[in-house]
């Protein structure tokens, strides 16, 4: 029987830990909808640090989940606004087949650079199509400011495990497997397969193998050995890094200890358990909020983000289940506001003129300021005249301050002067006007305000880099103050890293009488969140903090799957960084799937990592699997000389999450990599044991499907693949022993917030055992490394992406694809596509150049050839165009007029390039020094080049060297050409290549 998770969660006898999956008590009118599924929304321009400036509005992603009308807690992210994770409630919702209407309240969290908490309430109305896609509008308030804009999104059906039973708080193990599986696993351990695992782990001292042996044998000596090993390795503290390899070494030791804790805790003494628990709790608390390495990239695509979010999420599940104190009730801000009395004896001095306080408008009269000081000044620049709490400067006041420059402390002297009148506008002192383009600095501003009567107020917002003092009391966003009548000094410190932005002119709001007052709205959301947590605490007594760690761990890893891997399972960051970033989130995917009873993500992302790589892989001989990467070194990639089994740990970790339709072929690949040929060779899965981690050995034992029949990829895998988020398109003729043909096109449809190449529209062709054009696979590269059309005379947005406008495929693997390249051919357009891959057409800076690239691959053999690829480029505007083809390192390349022939061993590629004006191909070897060697490219490229007009049409034909050269008939010219090869005709019609 299928058990509804959220119906179980609503049952008072047993709520599951995850707030993500925890229901609220909703009115019957909302339960009537009986909706089950997930809703993902993207709100354009929903949050802003500068609400008065529409250009500063940032986009917001919201994820909400429901089962049978019961809505779980909402999560949100606004990557351009900050790196904080936002959470809140669905206030009401109605989901039908035609539309979605929702009201969502969010607690928007700041980060290390913009500190604070802000309330947001949004009303969403969107139309829904048959595929669940949503388009509509939202309106609402963010921090008291009205916001409205466009909404896009998706309604996704529920994907839950049939018969899933939630874990009990005292249930262990729960990470690698559930306690309820132990009896069955002990039976499995008694089989020849299980004995091979136990033999492989015999004598090992890694913590996971020891913990597994304790569970499978029941012998507590293994748990004691694990404890002794932890004591030996980590006598004082579990290290964050196991090596000096940057983010690649993060979390390994903590992860191992957490798994040992989960497997062995019942056999450990309480004193040892308490010590380990304390260290793990400290780790989760800190590292869900910060990343652990220097100079981290906080985008979910990054190699820093993956381990930094994956490991804490796994540890959080290991810790869940403890009893804990009642959640702390939020303080009503109206109960005891902090009093700000006028500073005794204060009278504005020379150059300072007080202004009457007007609520809702920038404070301050005539200002004076210190001028620009070094950024690295002391915490309180006014320390020499009483500090920020007592200073009341006037024009001419001089202050000696302390600064640290180049690690040396020096003294400086500032002198207050009047702020020029032309630097003041409606928002107060406009910092860009005052400071210009000068880089980082610190400044102090001073004025006075006159308050007519006592008033309860709150600060509208805490501007980035500003500290605000009234009568010596520092104001905080969200705090409520009783500002007493009288004359008050107003001091503002501004620390600007980089160019100064924004304005000096703090705004106070009355706390009472304003329905959208940010302080009261913030309190209302916190109060309702507290009610939610308190209701569950009363039911189960579980520590709300532990519950929150688990749910935030889910949300942070979901972001990696959604924005770092994307639909189609293509991890785009180049070099080894793709492996680093996705490893622990992949391990978490299997753990959370088992713990939650549903996939972490309803999208085809992490679950498709392995199937996608199989589509890109060549299996030329047993034990080998070379992934033909077009943008990054992939996790299954087996390069010459590398251990052929390096891909098995990814399959072992991810196998339970892979869609069932692909699992039999993934099993075939697993056997292929490890040399398994049948039941009598299963021990090879664990050999050689010293080349596998304890985790891989355990996951192999746990996940290898003994009763499943392997299916060759020719029968079980598709021949075409679409990974739309980043734009990988692959088409192959089959999976036959290295003789097949694999063509790939990379759109770079979304920004890659790690190591990124300007390679939109890149193509790669592999076939008959050879590469026919190269791509750059290292972490740095330039557009000249790819087979694209170069525009050497024009300043274009080389790092931008292409957009797919057409795609079709056929069962034999043939494919036709068209990419809109306008964004690449535009001028550099900052903010055109944001960090959540949302495009704003208004930010595109037109260059007068537009274009498309269309590619078709034909495997039908109607042409008489194993494979034909046709590629069209149509570019309007701009200067010279250089059609380029990166030549492979092996083989012989010859050009004659508009024809290119490459021979490698017994295989040949013939190519013809057409344009509306005559062109001549040439081959060349060019030494390039573009940018820096570390971040760009210093090296040599070998390519075929042709300078033509605005249009190019290229035909590539693969054949055996001893096969007759194909007869090609061409009528027409340029893109109007009709090409006939054998029984097949190719032509370019309506911006797509047609195969007839």
What does this structure look like?
- The strands form 10 sheets. Strands 1-2-4-5-6-7-8-9 form an 8-stranded antiparallel barrel. Strands 34-35-36-37-44-41-40-39 form an 8-stranded antiparallel sheet.
- Helix 6 runs antiparallel to helix 7 (252-264), helix 8 runs antiparallel to helix 9 (305-319) and helix 12 (544-565) crosses helix 13 (577-596).
- Helix content is 21%, strand content 29%.
- It has 19 helices and 48 strands.
- A hairpin with a 2-residue loop joins strand 13 (398-405) and strand 14 (408-415).
What are the salient characteristics of this protein?
disordered N terminus; alpha+beta; eight-stranded antiparallel β-sheet; eight-stranded antiparallel β-barrel
In short:
The protein is of the alpha+beta class. The protein contains 19 helices and 48 strands.
How are the secondary structure elements laid out?
Blueprint: H1 5-10, H2 28-31, E1 37-47, E2 58-67, E3 70-71, E4 74-77, E5 86-95, E6 99-109, E7 117-128, E8 133-142, E9 145-156, H3 182-189, H4 192-201, H5 207-217, H6 220-233, H7 252-264, H8 270-287, H9 305-319, E10 338-340, E11 354-356, E12 368-369, E13 398-405, E14 408-415, E15 417-418, E16 424-425, E17 428-430, H10 431-435, E18 441-451, E19 455-459, E20 466-470, E21 473-474, E22 480-483, E23 486-496, E24 503-504, E25 508-510, H11 518-540, H12 544-565, H13 577-596, H14 609-616, E26 617-618, E27 626-627, H15 648-654, H16 663-674, H17 694-703, H18 713-716, E28 720-723, E29 728-732, E30 741-746, E31 762-767, E32 770-771, E33 789-790, E34 803-809, E35 815-820, H19 822-825, E36 850-858, E37 867-876, E38 881-886, E39 892-896, E40 899-904, E41 907-915, E42 922-930, E43 937-948, E44 951-960, E45 968-971, E46 978-981, E47 984-989, E48 992-995
Parallel strand pairs: 10-22, 11-18
Antiparallel strand pairs: 1-2, 1-9, 2-3, 2-4, 4-5, 5-6, 6-7, 7-8, 8-9, 12-15, 12-18, 13-14, 16-17, 17-24, 18-23, 19-22, 19-25, 20-21, 20-23, 26-27, 28-29, 29-30, 30-31, 31-32, 33-38, 34-35, 35-36, 36-37, 37-44, 38-43, 39-40, 40-41, 41-44, 42-43, 45-46, 46-47, 47-48
Helix pairs in contact: 3-4, 4-17, 5-6, 5-7, 5-17, 6-7, 7-8, 7-9, 8-9, 9-12, 9-13, 12-13, 15-17
């Amino acid at each position: 029987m299928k058990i509804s998770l959220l119906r179980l969660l609503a049952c008072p006898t047993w709520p599951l830990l995850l707030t993500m999956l925890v229901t609220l008590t909703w009115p019957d009118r909302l339960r009537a909808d009986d909706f089950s599924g997930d809703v993902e929304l993207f709100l354009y321009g929903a949050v802003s640090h500068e609400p008065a400036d529409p250009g500063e509005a940032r986009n917001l992603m919201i994820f909400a989940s429901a089962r049978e009308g019961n809505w779980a807690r909402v999560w949100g992210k606004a990557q351009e606004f900050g790196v904080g994770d936002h959470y809140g409630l669905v206030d009401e919702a109605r989901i039908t087949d035609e539309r979605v209407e929702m009201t969502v309240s969010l607690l928007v969290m700041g980060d290390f650079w913009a500190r604070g908490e802000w309330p947001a309430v949004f009303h969403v109305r969107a139309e829904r199509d048959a595929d669940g896609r949503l388009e509509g509008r939202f309106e609402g308030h963010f921090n008291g400011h009205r916001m409205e804009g466009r909404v896009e999104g998706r309604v996704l059906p529920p994907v839950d495990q049939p018969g899933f039973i939630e874990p009990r708080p005292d249930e262990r193990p729960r990470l690698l497997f559930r306690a309820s599986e132990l009896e069955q696993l002990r039976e499995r351990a008694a089989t020849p397969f299980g004995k091979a695992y136990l033999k492989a782990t015999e004598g090992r001292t890694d913590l996971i193998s020891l913990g597994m042996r304790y569970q499978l044998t029941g012998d507590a000596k293994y748990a004691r050995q694990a404890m002794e090993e932890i004591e030996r390795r980590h006598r004082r503290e579990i290290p964050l890094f196991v090596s000096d390899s940057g983010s690649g070494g993060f979390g390994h030791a903590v992860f191992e200890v957490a798994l040992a804790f989960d497997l062995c805790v019942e056999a450990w003494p309480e004193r040892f358990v308490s010590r380990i628990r304390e260290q793990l709790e400290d780790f989760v608390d800190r590292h869900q909020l910060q990343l652990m390495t220097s100079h981290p990239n906080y985008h979910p695509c990054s190699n820093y983000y993956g381990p930094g979010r994956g490991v804490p999420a796994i540890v959080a599940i290991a810790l869940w289940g403890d009893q804990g104190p009642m959640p702390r009730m939020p303080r009503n801000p109206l109960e005891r506001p902090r009093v700000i009395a006028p500073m005794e004896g204060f009278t504005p001095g020379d150059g300072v003129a007080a202004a009457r306080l007007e609520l809702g408008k920038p404070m301050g009269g005539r200002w004076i300021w210190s001028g620009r000081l070094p950024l690295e000044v002391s915490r309180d620049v006014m320390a020499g005249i009483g500090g920020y709490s007592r200073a009341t400067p006037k024009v001419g006041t001089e202050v000696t301050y302390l600064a640290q420059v180049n690690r040396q402390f020096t003294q400086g002297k500032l002198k207050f002067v009047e702020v020029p009148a032309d630097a003041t506008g409606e928002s107060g002192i406009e910092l860009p006007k005052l400071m210009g383009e000068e880089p980082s600095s610190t400044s102090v501003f001073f004025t006075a305000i006159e308050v007519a009567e006592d008033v309860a107020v709150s600060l509208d917002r805490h501007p980035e880099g500003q500290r605000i003092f009234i009568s010596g009391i520092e104001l905080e966003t969200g705090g409520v103050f009783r500002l007493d009548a009288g004359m008050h000094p107003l001091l503002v410190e501004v620390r600007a890293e980089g160019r100064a932005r924004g304005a000096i002119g703090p705004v106070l709001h009355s706390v009472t009488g304003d329905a959208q007052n940010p302080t009261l709205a913030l309190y209302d959301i916190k109060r309702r969140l507290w009610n939610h947590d308190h209701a569950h605490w009363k039911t189960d007594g579980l520590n709300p903090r532990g519950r929150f760690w688990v749910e935030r761990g889910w949300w942070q890893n979901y972001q990696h799957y959604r924005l770092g891997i994307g639909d189609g399972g293509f991890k785009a960051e180049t070099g080894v960084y793709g492996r680093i970033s996705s490893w622990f989130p992949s391990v978490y995917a299997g753990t959370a799937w088992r713990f939650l009873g549903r996939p972490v993500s309803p999208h085809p992302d992490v679950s498709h990592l392995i199937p996608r790589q199989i589509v890109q892989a060549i299996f030329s001989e047993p034990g080998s699997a070379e992934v033909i990467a077009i943008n990054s070194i992939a996790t299954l990639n087996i390069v010459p000389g590398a251990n052929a089994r390096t891909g098995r740990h990814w399959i072992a970790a991810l196998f339970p999450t892979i869609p069932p339709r692909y699992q039999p072929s993934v099993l075939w690949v697993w056997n292929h990599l490890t040399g398994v040929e049948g039941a009598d060779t299963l021990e090879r899965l664990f050999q050689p044991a010293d080349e596998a981690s304890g985790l891989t050995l355990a996951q192999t034992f746990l996940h290898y499907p003994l009763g499943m029949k392997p299916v060759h990829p020719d029968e079980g895998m598709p021949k075409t693949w679409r990974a739309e988020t980043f734009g990988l398109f692959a088409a192959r003729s089959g999976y036959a022993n290295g003789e097949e043909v694999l063509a790939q096109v990379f759109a770079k449809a979304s920004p890659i917030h790690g190591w990124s190449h300007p390679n939109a529209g890149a193509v790669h062709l592999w076939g008959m055992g050879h590469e026919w054009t190269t791509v750059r696979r290292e972490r740095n590269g330039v557009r000249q490394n790819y087979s694209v059309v170069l525009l050497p005379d024009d300043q274009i947005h080389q790092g931008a992406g292409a957009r797919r406008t057409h795609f079709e495929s056929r069962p034999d693997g043939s494919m036709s694809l068209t990419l809109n390249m306008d964004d690449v051919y535009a001028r550099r357009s900052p903010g055109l596509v944001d960090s959540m891959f949302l495009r704003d057409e208004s930010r595109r800076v037109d260059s007068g150049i537009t274009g498309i690239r269309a590619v078709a691959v034909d495997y039908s053999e109607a042409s008489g050839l194993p494979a034909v690829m046709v590629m069209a480029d149509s570019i309007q505007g701009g200067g010279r165009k250089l059609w380029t083809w990166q030549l492979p390192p092996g083989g012989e390349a010859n050009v004659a007029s508009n024809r290119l022939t490459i021979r490698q061993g017994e295989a040949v590629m013939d190519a013809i390039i057409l344009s509306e004006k005559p062109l001549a191909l040439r081959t060349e070897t060019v030494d390039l020094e573009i940018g820096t060697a570390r971040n760009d490219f210093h090296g040599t490229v070998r390519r075929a080049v042709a300078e033509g007009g605005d249009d190019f049409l290229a035909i590539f034909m693969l054949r055996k060297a001893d096969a007759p050269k194909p007869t090609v008939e061409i009528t027409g010219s340029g893109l109007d050409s009709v090409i006939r090869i054998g029984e097949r005709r190719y032509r370019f019609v309506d911006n797509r290549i047609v195969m007839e």
